[in-house]
Specification:
Layout: E1 4-6, H1 9-18, H2 47-64, H3 69-75, H4 84-99, E2 105-107, H5 110-121
Antiparallel strand pairs: 1-2
Length: about 120
């Protein structure tokens, strides 16, 4: 099949190395839908690092990993006051990226896609 593949495993690798101290274990899915994140009523845990992690993951998502968008939307709500539960979920997302690092986007007709975008933007 002819086309263009966009995989940014090097970017994901940088993010994983940056947060390696979190003892990231591989995960099959980025988020368990049945898990309910609740508002943290206690002290926030490493709020600045949590925000930095969310920011790094959003960059990865925008580059070519839309599969983590829903999870990041949920987790970014806790940026100002993260709890242990939110940190556990962040490490699951990182573990999912670790396991699926070589996934990317594939466009089988990139030129047609770009022409359509140019027509829309116009």
């Amino acid at each position: 099949m002819e086309g263009f593949a966009f995989c940014q495993s090097h970017c994901i690798d940088k993010v994983l190395n940056k947060f390696n101290h979190l003892n990231i274990k591989e995960a099959n899915i980025p988020y368990v839908v049945s898990f309910k994140l609740t508002k943290n009523s206690g002290r926030s845990i490493a709020q600045i690092e949590y925000a930095s992690t969310i920011s790094s993951l959003i960059y990865v998502m925008h580059c070519n990993r839309p599969d983590i968008a829903f999870t990041l939307c949920k987790l970014s709500r806790s940026t100002s006051n993260p709890s242990k539960d939110q940190w556990k979920e962040i490490t699951k997302v990182l573990g999912y990226l670790k396991k699926t690092m070589n996934l990317g986007l594939f466009y089988n007709n990139l030129l047609l896609y770009l022409k359509v975008i140019l027509m829309i933007v116009g």
